[in-house]
């Protein structure tokens, strides 16, 4: 059957199906004449299993291990059940602290977080979890740096293309053209090197600072 039929039967998008194929979780046969994928009922059944496990937030790597019989389904679900229970406990701890502060109707200007941070620390020592500030904040900083660099690089590439088009008309003297191209390429290379250094700083020093929270 075609992918559109599988999409309708399983209730997931073509993009999802292709993604699972790319991840090696699904390997449909191909028509020897045209090379098109031909999905079988077995593939549909496999996708149903994948969909079920993913809706339980089971990681792709664990699904892969189950498929390869490196991990039994029971052990996989026992592990995921434990993870979910841990998440529930963490959420309950966060809710309890939220309610505790909310019920006191404190003004932010006079709010003293020290006592609550100490309580969080005690909960974490007992195995509780809260948001990992260092990982989350560093990821956001990385994304911001990458987006800024992408925008700048796009502008510089457009700048180079523009002068290439102008040079074709012969209106730009060759020495000036060479200088402009050299400057543009140098700026792009410099931007890439600066971005690389910035990402190293985020992963290094700034992450160390964030981990003190």
TrEMBL record:
Transmembrane segments annotated in the record for this chain: 143-168, 174-195
GO MF assignments: DNA binding; DNA-binding transcription factor activity
InterPro entries the UniProt entry points to: DNA-bd_dom_put_sf, MerR-type_HTH_dom, MerR_fam
Ranges of residues in domain HTH merR-type: 1-69
SUPFAM superfamilies membership: Putative DNA-binding domain
Origin: domain of life: Bacteria
SMART domains found in the cross-reference section: HTH_MERR (SM00422)
Keywords tagged on the record: DNA-binding, Membrane, Transcription, Transcription regulation, Transmembrane, Transmembrane helix
Name this protein carries in UniProt: DNA-binding transcriptional regulator, MerR family
Organism annotation: Butyrivibrio hungatei
């Amino acid at each position: 059957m075609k992918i559109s039929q599988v999409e309708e039967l399983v209730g997931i998008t073509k993009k999802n199906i292709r993604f699972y194929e790319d991840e090696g979780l699904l390997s449909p046969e191909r028509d020897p004449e045209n090379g098109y994928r031909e999905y079988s009922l077995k593939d549909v059944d496999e996708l149903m299993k994948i969909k079920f496990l993913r809706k339980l937030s089971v990681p792709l790597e664990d699904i892969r291990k189950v498929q390869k019989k490196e991990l039994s389904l029971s052990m996989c679900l026992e592990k995921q059940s434990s993870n979910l229970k841990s998440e529930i406990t963490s959420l309950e701890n966060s809710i309890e602290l939220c309610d505790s502060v909310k019920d006191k109707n404190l003004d932010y200007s006079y709010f003293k977080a020290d006592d609550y941070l100490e309580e969080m620390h005690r909960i974490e020592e007992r195995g509780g979890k809260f948001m990992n500030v260092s990982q989350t904040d560093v990821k956001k900083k990385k994304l911001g740096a990458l987006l800024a660099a992408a925008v700048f690089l796009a502008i510089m590439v457009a700048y180079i293309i523009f002068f290439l088009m102008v040079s074709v008309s012969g209106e730009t003297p060759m020495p000036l053209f060479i200088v402009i191209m050299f400057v543009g390429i140098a700026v792009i290379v410099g931007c890439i090197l600066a971005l690389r250094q910035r990402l190293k700083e985020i992963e290094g020093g700034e992450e160390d600072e964030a981990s003190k929270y």
